[in-house]
Amino acid sequence: MNRTIRIARGSIAIGIVVLGLKTLAWWLTGSVALLSDALESTVNVATALAALIAIRIAQRPADPGHPYGHHKAEFLSAVLEGVMIIVAAMLILQEAYHGIRNPRPLDAPVLGLAVNALAGIVNAVWCGVLIRQGQRLRSPALVADGRHLLSDVVTSAGVILGVALAAATGHAILDPILAAAVAVNILWSGWKVMTASLGGLMDEAVSDDMLRDIRATISDHAAGAIEAHDLRTRHAGSMTFIDFHLVVDGDTPVAQAHAICDRIEAALKRKLDDAQITIHVEPEHKAKHSGVLVI
Question: Is the pTM of this model over 0.90?
Answer without folding.
Answer: no
